[in-house]
Amino acid sequence: MVVLSKFAENLLALMQEHNLNAPALGKILNIDRSNITRYLRGERLPNYHLFIAIIEYFNVSADVLLGRIDFCETQAFQPVKPFGDILGNLLKESKVTQTQLQKALHFSSATTYTWLTNQRIPSITHLDELADYLDVTVDYLLGRIS
Question: 9 lies in which domain range?
Answer without folding.
Answer: 2-65
